[in-house]
Amino acid sequence: MTAAHFDLTGKVAIVTGGNGGIGLGMALGLAQAGAAVAIVGRNEAKSMAAITELRAGGARAISVTTDVTDKTAVAAMVARTLGELGRIDILVNNAGINIRKPPHALELAEWESVMKTNLTSAFLCSQAVHPAMKQAGGGKIINIGSMMSIFGASFAPAYAASKGGIVQFTRSCAVAWAADNIQANAVLPGWIDTDLTKRAREQIDGLHDKVLARTPAARWGVTADFAGIAVFLASPASDFVTGTAIPVDGGFSIMG
Ligand code: NDP
């Protein structure tokens, strides 16, 4: 195994939710390995800051402001990426939200909003990039799940359902598109210090210390922890890895 196995020079990646948090951590890793990156999010100012950071590291990067729950907008985002960057080799389906309520209190509109953002968006984006990847002779799809792809969550039923669904959607694409040389894998983050969990920490007493106590690595994850797994799953190093769901959680999921 040499550095060539992890070289993404000439490759193009789309990262949804790549303007902050885990998505930006992955985008920075992909860019450092040589990929050009399209950052996809709704907040234009955040996306501009992200592409400035990527470009400062020498990467080719564009921002494509898009709501990934909107099929027409997703098609336009893929067309613009192809138009400006020329190809699509890597798709990271990372955009996500959570609404913290137990099942008996969750409104239908809230359920649908979480499912659309976390799961339907992965379907829309994967379907939209499939023709370009197939035509190019292959591709890599990386879907972001969660510990709640494995465990239930009394306070996040739609989130857990969407993240469980991500794993089965990943496996389905892995099987359906294996003949097109497309590998699809899921990454399951543990507790990571981002805007998403900042809100949870404000709402749940003692969450910070509970996570430390339960995590063998004895720390919260940071967004830089996702650079390496992104490069691995996007590169030739993982060409015989497909349909998996890999925890990146400091050991959280192995604790009884
Ligand atoms: P952040 O809140 O920092 O990032 C979420 C990203 O999703 C933002 O960049 C946001 O961009 C984007 N996004 C949300 N809705 C849409 C939409 N409709 N269209 C386009 N982009 C959208 O959270 P994290 O980095 O923590 O989360 C990233 C992923 O990791 C999520 O899927 C989350 O569920 C998952 N995860 C996170 C964990 C953690 O501990 N942090 C644990 C397990 C999983 P914008 O603001 O521009 O819309």
Polypeptide structure, described:
Helices cover 45% and strands 15% of the residues. With 256 residues, it is of the alpha/beta class. It has one domain (12-248): NAD(P)-binding Rossmann-like Domain (Rossmann fold). It has a seven-stranded parallel beta sheet, sandwiched between helices. Helix 1 links the parallel strand 1 and strand 2. Helix 4 packs parallel to helix 5 (157-176). The longest helix has 29 residues, at 108-136. The chain binds NADPH dihydro-nicotinamide-adenine-dinucleotide phosphate (NDP). NADPH dihydro-nicotinamide-adenine-dinucleotide phosphate binds at residues 16-17, 19-23, 41-43, 46, 66-69, 94-97, 117-118, 144, 146, 189, 191-192, 194-197.
Topology:
Layout: E1 12-16, H1 21-32, E2 36-41, H2 44-56, E3 61-65, H3 71-85, E4 90-93, H4 108-136, E5 139-144, H5 157-176, E6 182-189, H6 195-203, H7 207-214, H8 227-234, E7 245-248
Parallel strand pairs: 1-2, 1-4, 2-3, 4-5, 5-6, 6-7
Helix pairs in contact: 1-8, 3-4, 4-5
Bound molecules: NADPH dihydro-nicotinamide-adenine-dinucleotide phosphate.
Which CATH architecture would you pick? 3-Layer(aba) Sandwich
* Largest beta-sheet details: 7 strands, parallel
CATH superfamily: NAD(P)-binding Rossmann-like Domain
Give the distance, in angstroms, between the N- and C-terminal Cα atoms: 35 Å
Mean pLDDT: 97
Q: List the domain count as a whole number.
A: 1
What ions, cofactors and ligands are bound? NADPH dihydro-nicotinamide-adenine-dinucleotide phosphate
Structural class: alpha/beta
| Strand line-up of the largest beta sheet | 3-2-1-4-5-6-7
Give the C-alpha Rg: 17 Å
Q: Element order, helices and strands?
A: EHEHEHEHEHEHHHE
Kindly provide the name of the CATH class: Alpha Beta
CATH-defined fold name: Rossmann fold
Helix content: 40-55%
Number of helices: 8
Q: How many DSSP E strands?
A: 7
Low-confidence stretches: none
What does the overall shape look like?
globular
Please report which band the strand proportion falls in: under 5%, 5-15%, 15-25%, 25-35%, 35-45% or over 45%.
5-15%
